[in-house]
Design brief:
Elements: H1 5-17, E1 19-21, H2 23-29, H3 38-47, E2 49-54, E3 62-69, E4 72-80, E5 85-91
Amino acid sequence: MKNYQHFHEKIIELAKKHILYTPHAIRQMNSEKRMITTNDVEKVISGGRIIEDYPDDKRGHSCLMHAEINERHIHIVCAPKDNYVAIITAYVPDKEIWSNNFNTRIKK
């Protein structure tokens, strides 16, 4: 796995300033099956790890992060901007798509 430490540190610092949730992220977080809180997202940012990097994303350089919060696995896609971090989506990963540790996509 690549070392994304510098990129992760940038995300953490920007998140301390401001986190912006896209309408899509809010819908995903508030779905009945997910109920992901802003506190959960903050914990993923501060204590999670980057598992996929999207340097050419149309929204700007973004990444997929993963953490286990209160015995539940959570993924977020976030994009650091000049003065904030944009949360593009947040979800509970599907066991059919992700490996047992939820860090690697299952190849089909």
